[in-house]
Design a protein that fits this description.
Order of helices and strands: HHHHHEEHHHHEEHHHHH
Number of helices: 14
Shape: globular
Radius of gyration: 21 Å
Strand order of the largest sheet: 1-2
Structural class: mainly alpha
Largest sheet: 2 strands, antiparallel
Distance between the termini: 33 Å
Helix content: over 70%
Number of strands: 4
Length: 339
């Protein structure tokens, strides 16, 4: 782990806990927390081998439609069913999902203190009566799941804002780390589609804001304020993860080219500027804003300007992680044949 990554992890942990002991401006908290989360997730996404499964252009085109269907379904559920019942079911779902996300986030720190064979030896567990279904895991993953289980139990019992935020941050970091757009073309399609999605559901319908306020689950980060009428400021996880996977792609592109985080810096600055613009406009109009309205043009614009300036447009558009992974697999197979 690089020193900058270590500092970012410590800063993110400190910033998350800070509102417990001192007053933190919620606007500054939103900006710093989101940016640190993207930074941490991006560097965790850099692995020795590129991802073998990436998002296709077709998936990117369908994503806003699927997201719209899920959002509208949740809105109708909250409208026609008991809010407590819906949230109880969702709490059970996020309890399991939270254990997986939190244990995966903690695993790199925990595995360093465990025996090597605990990290490498796989245990295969088959479901009773369904022998074809099996789950692979290591002893290290079991150890990492223990604190995750207790923490998720605390969240389900208390629904404290701190528990909500820690789970939300784990979801964000894992999303940025594990999801791959594959290429910048796919990324541009996804961001453009969600740009329209965010504007439509926030400005033209009450659906997005209604679901965000009714949904008692870690799908948003909560930042305590001094206003009793509005005790928390909110930021949706999608406003971190979606731009974050695009910024992470820029970092892996730099690594692929052997450059020192060249285009990562420009896209990360673009994300920061877009988030600051969101906060400024939100406070100016005193109304909820679709964050992607400002973040998407800023991230793409900063990266595009930098690429055009350096004359790397063709190389950036031709970059495809799925092809890189396939070529590495072919190289490994050919090496084995030579041996």
């Amino acid at each position: 782990m690089r020193n900058s990554e270590r500092v970012a992890n410590i800063a993110l942990a400190g910033l998350t806990l800070a509102p417990l002991v001192l007053k933190v401006d919620p606007n500054l908290n939103v900006i710093l927390t989101a940016c640190l989360t993207v930074y941490v997730g991006c560097y965790r996404s850099v692995k020795p081998t590129p991802p073998s499964e990436t998002m296709s252009n077709e998936h990117a085109m369908r994503f806003p439609l699927v997201g719209s269907a899920m959002l509208l379904s949740l809105f109708l559920l909250f409208k026609f069913l008991s809010k407590d019942l819906v949230n109880a079911v969702l709490t059970c779902y996020f309890f399991v999902l939270g254990i997986l996300a939190l244990s995966a986030t903690l695993l790199p720190a925990i595995k360093r203190f465990l025996p090597k064979h605990w990290n490498e030896d796989l245990i295969v567990w088959r479901f009773p009566y369904f022998r074809s279904l099996e789950v692979d895991f290591t002893r290290s993953q079991v150890v990492a799941a223990i604190p995750g289980t207790f923490f998720c139990a605390w969240y389900a019992w208390q629904k404290h804002w701190l528990a909500n935020n820690i789970l939300g941050l784990a979801f964000c970091i894992q999303g940025i780390e594990m999801l791959s757009l594959g290429s910048f073309k796919t990324g541009a399609i996804l961001l453009a589609g969600l740009f329209v999605y965010d504007i439509f559901w926030v400005f033209f319908t009450p659906v997005m804001v209604s679901v965000a306020k009714s949904f008692d689950a870690p799908i948003k980060l909560l930042f305590p304020t001094a206003d009793s009428a509005r005790p928390f400021s909110m930021l949706g996880l999608g406003d971190i993860v979606i731009p974050g996977i695009f910024v992470a792609l820029a970092l892996r592109f730099d690594v692929f080219r052997g450059k020192e985080s060249q285009y990562f810096k420009s896209s990360f600055v673009g994300y920061t500027v877009g988030l600051i613009l969101t906060i400024i406009v939100m406070n100016w109009f005193q109304a909820a804003q679709p964050a992607l309205l400002y973040i998407v043009p800023s991230v793409i614009g900063f990266l595009a300007a930098h690429v055009l300036w350096n004359g790397d447009v063709k190389q950036l558009l031709e970059f495809d992680e799925s092809k890189t992974a396939a070529s590495q697999d072919d190289d490994v197979k050919s090496d084995k044949k030579v041996e």
